[in-house]
Amino acid sequence: MNRIDDLFDLTALLSPAEIDWQTRARDLATTLIAPVIDADFENKHFRREIVAELGAGGFLGMHLTGYGCAGASAVSYGLACLEFEAVDSGWRTLVSVQGSLAMSAIWHFGSEQQKQEFLPHMATGAVLGCFALTEPHGGSDPAAMVTRADRDGDGWVITGTKRWIGLASEADLAIVWARTDEGIRGFIVPTDADGFVARPIDTKLSMRASVQCDVEFNSVRVSGDALLPGVTGLSAALSCLNEARFGIVWGVMGAARSCLNAAVTRSTERSVFGRPLGANQLVQQKLAEMFVEYEKGMLLALHIGRQKERGTLTPEQISVGKLNNVREAIAIASTARSLLGGDGITSEFPVMRHMANLESVRTYEGTDDIHTLILGRALTGLAAF
After folding, report:
1. How many Cα atoms sit within 13 Å of 120 on the Cβ side?
2. In this structure, are 357 and 252 located in the same domain?
3. pLDDT in tens, the chain (385 residues)
4. Among 205, 226, 247, which residue terminates a domain?
5. Are 119 and 133 in the same domain?
6. Given 94, 102, 126, 363, which is the most exposed site by the fewest CB atoms within 10 A?
7. Acyl-CoA oxidase/dehydrogenase middle domain location, by residue (predicted)?
């Protein structure tokens, strides 16, 4: 525990099972990821071996039930996302891509055979998945996708390109969304299929310990049983995005907590003008405001989590959480950086790494603008897209 945890006392609002999930996630993140994350960020290195540890801990697809998945509560899942992102956004992203996107797509829309074949191995981390939706010229408009899947005998041929696909060069399978004559459909595509090409985007200044790729489908042929039979249309892909957004609502507060912790610690250890930095009123004001926004973000995440558990959560409410919590996490990181002075731009502190990563989180799963327009539409009944 630390001053932030003690002052907030979130555990008073949590069940023993939820606290256990959070504690185990924090232990894993601090023992396995934290000691190597600065070097991995610097070297653009993704540690595939940690995936199996996440699987052994039950964190992959943990909010799903059956098929080897843990069946944890929504809040437990959120708390795990919080702890992984407190170390680095890239590892919360992995949990999101594997569990909230790839596994959720199969769990919700796959056949029983597909669920039995893939989900148990994905839950252990033995099989890694990715989620291929975004296209180079589509961005925030997935309905503009041009990737196609055309029937070819008893199978399908997929042609097109995707961009910013997390884990694609590491994954064993891809959930690919493509336009068909019947509408947009999802497919389970082995990444070793002929014509599947994933190229890591090497110029990133953010999420450097993670992997995002450009993907090409050069007449990739898959069998008929690769089709996800449960739904036709873009709504299926968007529902998976909402699962991932839920994890973001919690995760970014972990990054915010890490930055706030660094600022509080530094303000008590560093002396300026003959006294601790934290003894100055302006410094205390900044720390207090950072803490208040962190606490508000956590309470918002908890409220959204309880709604999800009750089955009453709406996409618009998820947009409130994603818009607010990412925005406030970035503001907290920025203020923390200023309190750390020149040292704040070094890798001696995690703040600049979190700031860079949070800019990616702000962009994916819906930009600030998109979530603002979602809420504007909900308030007025008028679409401004």
Report:
1. 6
2. yes
3. 467 888 888 999 999 999 999 999 999 999 999 999 999 999 999 999 999 999 999 999 999 999 999 999 999 999 999 999 999 999 999 999 999 999 999 999 999 999 999 999 999 999 999 999 999 988 788 888 999 999 999 999 999 999 999 999 999 999 999 999 999 999 999 999 999 999 999 999 999 999 999 999 999 999 999 999 988 999 999 999 999 999 999 999 999 999 999 999 999 999 888 899 999 999 999 999 999 999 999 999 999 999 999 999 999 999 999 999 999 999 999 999 999 999 999 999 999 999 999 999 999 999 999 999 999 999 999 999 8
4. 226
5. no
6. 126
7. 130-220
Q: Which of 354, 370, 65, 57 shows the shortest CA–CA distance to 238?
A: 370
Among 5, 128, 14, 1, which Cα is nearest to 61's? 128
Four-point Cα dihedral 15, 105, 68, 61, nearest 10: -40
Question: Token digits for 136?
Answer: 């180079």
Residue 385 inside a domain? The answer is no
Are residues 341 and 273 located together in one domain of the fold? Answer: yes
Q: How far is CA 273 from CA 253, 270, 284, in A?
A: 33, 10, 16
CB 263 within 8 A of CB 290: yes
CATH number at residue 142: 2.40.110.10
- Of 226, 243, 262, the residue that ends a domain is 226
Residue written as tokens 């932030």? Answer: 4
* CB 274 within 8 Å of CB 312: no
Catalytic residue positions, numbered: 365
Three-class secondary structure of residue 216 per DSSP: strand
Give yes or no: residues 206 and 327 share one domain. Answer: no
3-class SS at 384? coil
Q: Which domain holds residue 73?
A: 3-124
Rounded Cα–Cα distance for residues 106 and 289 (Å): 42
